[in-house]
Design goal:
The protein is α+β, with helices and mostly antiparallel strands. The chain has helices spanning about 1-10, 15-30, 150-165, 185-195, 225-230, 260-265, 270-285, 310-320, and strands at about 40-45, 55-60, 65-70, 80-85, 85-90, 95-105, 110-115, 125-130, 140-145, 170-175, 200-205, 245-250, 250-255, 290-295, 325-330, 335, 340, 345, 355-360, 375-380, 385-390, 395-405, 410-415. The structure holds fe (ii) ion (FE2).
Amino acid sequence: MMLRLLKLFTKGKFLWVVVMLAVGLALYFLPPSLILLPRNVTLTWMGEPTTTQTITWQTGRYSSRSQVEYGEVTDKLQSAMRAGTAQQVATDRGIITVHSVELTDLKPGTSYQYRVGDGLFWSSYHTLTTAPVQGQAFHFLLFGDSQGNSYKLWQRTLQIAYERNRDAAFMMNIGDLVDIGLNYDQWDDWFQAGHGVIDTMAIMPVMGNHETYTTEWKIAEPLLCTGFFRLPKNGPAALQGKVYSFDYGDAHFSILDSQLQEEAEWIPEMLTLQQEWLERDLAGANKRWKLVFIHRPLYHNRPSAGDEDLRDALAPLFERYDVDVVFSGHDHIYARSYPIVRGKWTDETGVGPVYITTGRSGKKTFARAQQKNWNAMFYNPLEQPNYLVIEVSDHNLQIKAFKLNGEVIDTWSKTAKRN
Ligand SMILES: [Fe+2]
């Protein structure tokens, strides 16, 4: 061995190996604030999904230019360049830069190849696909809480769900994306777990209570969550990045913020703000299906009390404006309620909102969860994570819950009332 090392050294190769090892180690342990290559490339929408796409990525603090080079997949020789904005975000690992570019005037139902960078350091190429014009059926993926002290299982759930649904239109996460919302390393693990998925399929997040937690388990403004995602700015001004809505195909999506206790210090009127906004939002929605997403469930499965303040404030609006399904997380179980109107559940379909708690996509389980009287279906995914596939067409809404191994937990569907 020593003789071989000596021979390598004498040929100059040993020095080369040492240099390469040192460079590799330096790159691996480079603090996030010094990274130059684009990292954590993510797709969302701020605007219309048929003609726009927002692309976000992260670098260290010393990269201020934000550029996207893109072109239709069928026409690779024709590419265009679009510039965007760079915003510095203070994290517990130093200052990083969040870059954002919104592509506009895209063709509906079209795939584009793109890469992001500063003009010198570029990402690899990725593909995005715009939404088709209204009228076409689509399906999207919905994941329950992904939080944990490791994101390996979240990666497995996400990647397996994606492999089985490569033609899904986009994905959503119901909140508690990470366990410690003010911890950069957990976010970095979360984004890295999505590599190859969230750079080709938009992710529309819902904010959870864990997004407001610090490494000392204190409450703070969720500045990493709101700093990392670029979302529609049509919610209340005080709740930008947390409350918003968008349309895709025949469905209207309304996303709410249930963190009343955590955020009261900064936004004491947040429930009233959301009530007023939701009323206008739902009244103005002209899609066949109305879907609401809120992290804490209005109809919970914890042994302790639920969030009656949310229920009292929001359920009447869901009923008045014919919301079809309200999706939640937080309890780490899968549960589907009977349709509920004015606090009473019924076997009839089509008479009121159905409340679905989506389960868990990460490693955290909740063994003490209990089935409740309002549950038409209850399943506690203690042994493996789960995910949902939601199919939307102009006449039908279908929700399927799958275990990670592919077994079906629940299937529920609703046929549209004809006008
Ligand atoms: Fe939660």
